[in-house]
Amino acid sequence: MKPKAIEVQNLHKHFGEIRAVDGVSFDVEHGEIFSLLGPNGAGKTTIISMLSCLLRPEEGDALVLGHSIRKDPMGVKSVLGVVPQEIALYEDLSARENLTFWGKMYGLRGARLKQRVDEVLEIIGLADRAKDRVGKYSGGMKRRVNIGVALLHKPQVIYMDEPTAGIDPQSRRNILDSVVALKDQGMTVLYTTHYMEEAQELSDHIAIMDHGKLIASGTNEELVQIVGEMDRITLTINAESQRVLEAWKVVKGVKQVMAEDGSITLLVDDSNQVLPRLFETAAAKDVRITSVAIQEPNLEAVFLHLTGRALRD
Amino acid sequence: MKILDIALKDMTRSFRSMFALIFMFVIPLLVPVMFYFMFGNIARNDQAFELPVTTVVIVNLDQGSPEFQQAMANFPGGMQADSLGGLVVSVLESQDFADLIQVSRAADPETARAAVDQQQAGVAILLPADFSAQFSTLEGQAVIEFYQDPTLTIGPGIVKSILKQFMDSISGAKIAVNVTMTETGTTDPALIGQVVGKYMASQPQGDPTATLLNIQSPVQMEPARNPILGIVGMVMGAMLIFYAYYTGVATALGILHEDEQHTLPRLFTTPTSPSSILTGKFLGVLLTVTAQVIILLIAARLIFQVNWGNWQAITLMCACIILNAAAFGIFINSLLKSSKQGGVVFGGVLTLTTWVGAMPIFLGFAGNTNPTVNTISLTVPQGWIVRMLMDGANSASLNQILFSALVTLAWTLIFFIVGIWRFQRRYA
Question: Which domains does chain B show, CATH number per domain?
Answer without folding.
Answer: 2-43+226-426 (no CATH), 54-208 (3.40.1710)
